[in-house]
Amino acid sequence: MELVTPSIGLVFWTTLTFVLLIMLLSKFAWKPIVAALNDREKSIEDALNAAEKAKEELSRLNVESDKLIKAARVERDKMLKEAKTLSDSLIHEAKVQAHAEGAKMIAKAHHEINNQKLAALAEVKNQVGALSIQIAEKILRKKFADAKEQEALVTELLKDVKLN
Amino acid sequence: MRFNPLFLKKTIILSSFFAIFSICSPNAKANSEGVDSAKHAAEHTEQVAEGHEDAHGKEGEFNATETIMEHISDSHDWHLWGDKSFGLPVILKTDAGLVHFNSEEFHHDNEGSHVVEANGQRFVRFENKVYYASETANEKGQYLAFVGEHPTNGKPLDFSITKNVASMFLSAILLLLIFTSIASSYKNREGKAPKGFQSLLEPIIVFVRDEIARPNIGHRYVGYMPFLLTIFFFIWINNLIGLVPIFPGGANLTGNIAVTFTLGVISFLVVSFSGNKYYWKHIFAPDVPWWLYPIMLIVEIIGVLSKPFALIVRLFANITAGHIIVLSLISLIFIFKTMAIAPVSIGFVLFMYVLELLVAFLQAFIFTMLTALFIGTAVEEHHHYD
Amino acid sequence: MIGSIAAIGAGLAVIGAGLGIGRIGGSAMEGIARQPEAASKIQTAMIIAAALVEGVALFGVVVALLGTR
C-alpha cells in the first residue's frame, strides 16, 4: 500500500524539476541540437543531390565528348580518304599526262625522223640529179662532136637514170 | 515483497507476536497512567526483543523484506555504507509555515522515539514519515499515538529534499550539463560530423525523432520533440542512475510511484491539451445511437484515464521489480548465511543487471513511444466513422 | 494470509500477461519470418501491443500490492 501511494513532496519536486528541465533543455539544448541536425541533414541531402547532378552532368559531358571524338574520327577518316583519293588521282593524272606527253614526243620524233628521212632522200635525189647533170655535162663535153655517139650515150645514161 | 515463503514465515511470526502484544497492551495502557518507570523499562526490553524479532537489531536475524523495502523506498537520509549516511534537508509545510532542518537531527531514528524541535514545533519520524510529535511518549518510547499499526498523529506536508529528490536534482544537473555541452559542440562544429560524446548521443536523439516522434505523431512532430526528448532522457538517465549501486546512484527514483505519477500526469496533460476537436468528439460524442451514450462516455473516459495510469504503473512496476529481484538475489547470501551461495547469487545478479540495463532503455523508450502514440491519436486530423 | 492471496493474484495476472506477450511475440516472429523487410514496423507494433498487455497485468500486480498492507 505504502509502495503505491505517491508522496506529495516527491510529486511537487518532480513536477518542479521536470518542468524546469523541459524549459531549460528546450531552450539551451534541444532547439540548437534539433536545428543543427536538421540543417546538417539538409546540407547532406543537398550535397548528395548536387553530387548526383554533377555525376549526371559528367556523364552527359562524357557522352557528348564521346560523340565529338567519334565525329572527329569520322571527319579525320574522311579527310584522309579524300586526300588519298586526291593524291591517287593526281598521280594518275600525272601518269596519264606523262604518257600522253611521251607518246606525243615519240610521235613528234617519228615525224621528225620521217621528215629528216624525206629531206635526206630529197637531198640525195637533188645531189644525184646534180651529179648526173655534171656527168652529163662531162659526157656532153667529151662526146659532143659525135652526135651519134652523143645520142647513144644520152640514151644509155637515161637508161641508167631510169634504173635508179 | 511479501510473496517469498521465507518472508511470509517471518511475517506470520511477526504478526503472531503483534497479536500477543496487542492482547497485553490494553492492560499495560490501563496501568501506565502515571508512567511507571519500571513498567516503562520492561516495555523497553520488550521493544528490544521485538527489535530482535523484527531484525531491526544489529545481531538480529536478517530480514530480506525489510532490507529490500528500505532500499527501494525513499528516505530522508542518504545511506552510504554500513551505518554511514549523511543528512539531507527536511522541509515541512506546517500549519505555522515552513520549517526546515537537517535530517541528521532525527539521529537515524525511524521509530518515532526521537523528537526534533524546530520553530517551536516538535516532530518525530516513523517509517520514513514525519509526524507532529505527541506531548508524551507512549509505552514504547514513541511520541505517537497508534490505532493498529498506523499512527494517528497529524502529518505536516513533507517537501523534504529526500534521497530521491536529491538524486533527481543530480540527474537534472547531469542532463543539463550533457546536453548543453552537446548543443555547444553542435554550434562549434556546425555542419560537421559529430565527435566524441556528441556521436554517442546523436543516434539516440535521431532515434527519438525518427522512430518515436515522426511515425507516431506525423508532420506535427516538431513541436513535441523537446517534450519527448526530455521525458525520454529523464527516464533513461534516472533508470541508469538507479542501477548504480554506490553513492550517487541507487535511489529508486523511477521506481517510485510519485515520480512516475507526475510523469504520467504531465504526459496526460500534454496529450489532452494537444487534442483536437476530432479527438474530443470521439470521446464525448462518438457516432453511436444516443441511448449508448451513458455507457460509451464511461468507457471512453476510462479509456482516456487508463492510458496514463498504465504508463505510471508500468514504469513504476518494471523498475521496482528490477530492484527487488536484484536485492532478493543478493539477500539469498544473507538468508542462507553462507558464502557458498554467493557465486550463484552474484551470477544471477550480473545477469539481472544486464537485463536491467536493457529494461532501463526499453522502459524509457516505451514511455516515450506510448506518449507519442497518444499525442498522435490526439492530433490526428481525419477520423472516419463509417 | 492476505499477503499470500495477493501473491496468488499477482501470479495469475502474470500467467495471463505471459500468455498474451508470448502470443504477441510468436506472431511477430512469424510475421517477420514471412516479411523480413517489414521487421522494424512489426517490432514497433509488437512492443506497443506487449506494453498494453503488460499494462493490464501490472494493474493486477498493483491490486495485489495494495492488498499486502
From TrEMBL, chain A:
GO terms for molecular function: proton-transporting ATP synthase activity, rotational mechanism; proton-transporting ATPase activity, rotational mechanism. The chain crosses the membrane at residues 6-25. InterPro entries: ATP_synth_B-like_membr_sf, ATP_synth_b/b'su_bac/chlpt, ATP_synth_F0_bsu_bac, ATP_synthase_B_chain. Pfam families: ATP-synt_B. Residues 34-71 form a coiled coil. Keywords: ATP synthesis, Cell membrane, CF(0), Coiled coil, Hydrogen ion transport, Ion transport, Membrane, Transmembrane, Transmembrane helix, Transport. It comes from the Bacteria. CDD domains: ATP-synt_Fo_b. Its main location: membrane. Gene3D superfamilies: F1F0 ATP synthase subunit B, membrane domain. It is a single-pass membrane protein. It is found in: Cell membrane; Endomembrane system. GO terms for cellular component: endomembrane system; plasma membrane; proton-transporting ATP synthase complex. The keyword Membrane applies. NCBIfam families: ATP_synt_b. Belongs to the ATPase B chain family. HAMAP family: ATP_synth_b_bprime (MF_01398). F-type ATPases have 2 components, F(1) - the catalytic core - and F(0) - the membrane proton channel. F(1) has five subunits: alpha(3), beta(3), gamma(1), delta(1), epsilon(1). F(0) has four main subunits: a(1), b(2) and c(10-14). The alpha and beta chains form an alternating ring which encloses part of the gamma chain. F(1) is attached to F(0) by a central stalk formed by the gamma and epsilon chains, while a peripheral stalk is formed by the delta and b chains. F-type ATPases have 2 components, F(1) - the catalytic core - and F(0) - the membrane proton channel. F(1) has five subunits: alpha(3), beta(3), gamma(1), delta(1), epsilon(1). F(0) has three main subunits: a(1), b(2) and c(10-14). The alpha and beta chains form an alternating ring which encloses part of the gamma chain. F(1) is attached to F(0) by a central stalk formed by the gamma and epsilon chains, while a peripheral stalk is formed by the delta and b chains. This is ATP synthase subunit b. It comes from Solitalea koreensis.
TrEMBL record, chain B:
Keywords: ATP synthesis, Cell membrane, CF(0), Hydrogen ion transport, Ion transport, Membrane, Signal, Transmembrane, Transmembrane helix, Transport. SUPFAM superfamilies: F1F0 ATP synthase subunit A (SSF81336). The chain crosses the membrane at residues 165-186, 224-247, 253-276, 288-305, 311-336, 348-375. One of its GO terms (cellular component) is proton-transporting ATP synthase complex. The keyword Cell division does not apply. Its main location: membrane. It comes from the Bacteria. It is found in: Cell membrane; Membrane. Belongs to the ATPase A chain family. This is ATP synthase subunit a. It comes from Solitalea koreensis. The gene is atpB.
TrEMBL record, chain C:
PANTHER family: ATP SYNTHASE LIPID-BINDING PROTEIN, MITOCHONDRIAL, ATPASE PROTEIN 9. It comes from the Bacteria. The record marks 54 as: Reversibly protonated during proton transport. This is ATP synthase subunit c. Belongs to the ATPase C chain family. Key component of the F(0) channel; it plays a direct role in translocation across the membrane. A homomeric c-ring of between 10-14 subunits forms the central stalk rotor element with the F(1) delta and epsilon subunits. F(1)F(0) ATP synthase produces ATP from ADP in the presence of a proton or sodium gradient. F-type ATPases consist of two structural domains, F(1) containing the extramembraneous catalytic core and F(0) containing the membrane proton channel, linked together by a central stalk and a peripheral stalk. During catalysis, ATP synthesis in the catalytic domain of F(1) is coupled via a rotary mechanism of the central stalk subunits to proton translocation. The keyword Phosphoprotein does not apply. It is a multi-pass membrane protein. Pfam families: ATP-synt_C. The chain crosses the membrane at residues 44-66. The gene is atpE. It is found in: Cell membrane; Membrane. Its main location: membrane. The keyword Cell membrane applies. InterPro entries: ATP_synth_csu_bac/chlpt, ATP_synth_F0_csu, ATP_synth_F0_csu_DDCD_BS, ATP_synth_F0_csu_sf, ATPase_proteolipid_c-like_dom, F/V-ATP_Csub_sf. GO terms for molecular function: lipid binding; proton-transporting ATP synthase activity, rotational mechanism. Residues 6-66 form the V-ATPase proteolipid subunit C-like domain. Keywords: ATP synthesis, Cell membrane, CF(0), Hydrogen ion transport, Ion transport, Lipid-binding, Membrane, Transmembrane, Transmembrane helix, Transport.
